[in-house]
Structures are given as C-alpha cells and as structure tokens.
Amino acid sequence: MSRIGRSPIKLASGVTVTVSATNEITVKGPKGELKKAIDRDIKVEVKEGELIVTRPTDQIRHRALHGLYRALIANMVTGVTEGFKKQLELVGVGYKAAHNGQLIDLALGYSHNIIFEIPKELKVNTVTEKGKNPLIQLEGIDNQLLGQVAAKIRSLRKPEPYKGKGVRYSNEVVRKKAGKSAGK
After folding, report:
1. In what order do the strands lie in the sheet with 135-140?
2. Is the pLDDT of residue 183 over 80?
C-alpha cells in the first residue's frame, strides 16, 4: 500500500466533502469551495470526520493514482481551511513591481515593462521597502493554481548564477558560480 495514500485526511470543523456519482469531489470550507474530478477507479469515503482514499487493485496505475489523489484532496482541504501563500523576491538594480487590481506591472531590466494578469481566484500584493528587494505576495485556496502563477512570474526572469539577479521565491537559495576571473 502507498504510505501517502493509506493515511486518512482529517477534516476540520466547518469543512464538508461531497463525492458525486461522476467521482467529482467538492470541498467546502470557511475560505471557499474547490472541485476536482478524480479517476473512476479511486474510491473516496468520509467516515467519522476523516476522509479515506482507497484503490481497487495493486496495478501500477492504481498504485500511482492512489497517493496522487490523496495528496491533491489533502491540499484542497488545507486550502479551504487555511489557504496557501507564495512570496516572490525581485533581485536586481532597477527591478520593480507594482499592482493595480489583478494586474502586476513588472520592471525586470528589459526595454519594456511586463504587465502580468493574475487570475481572479488569487489575491496579489506588492511590497517595496527602502533598502530591500521588492516582494510579490500571492495568496489563494488552490495550491495548484498558485504554484503555476508563481512559476510563470519567476520564468519571466529566472535567477542567473553569476550575480543572482532575477525573480526568485523568497525561500529559494541560488547557488552562485565563480566567474572567468576566478580562474586566474
């Protein structure tokens, strides 16, 4: 059995989980509602405040999906109760970020500013303090969407290995390389 798939998901108070006949899971909580269609072979049942994910056989396909869907459902439950946050840091001279509603205006050293639209499901905030790097803070209940948007923003100017300039996650460590002059 999958170690991840075998462990039950504890449901906090105020969280309701419903499974439709077409195997679509709906998780409702204090922060919102998330839906996910899962494979027809994977069974999900709610017992005594816990959610249990089971698989029919030990086929490779079923074993792979068992842990996957248990982790996705656990993220949905965490999202509707606590939510998720990601923070991006802009490292570089002249790099700036400003937001207006769901639009972020990024100055990342190109000849033009980049206007990036954030999906309405996420909240965005930009922080610029004197003497510190600008920050972009993203919040939402959907972990998958949040990670995808943060990765897209990071891909606009990835951190380079020589000076470390670029867009990075606030907890990311960029390994720097020695330049040409280090060899002499």
Report:
1. 123-127, 135-140, 84-91, 166-169
2. no
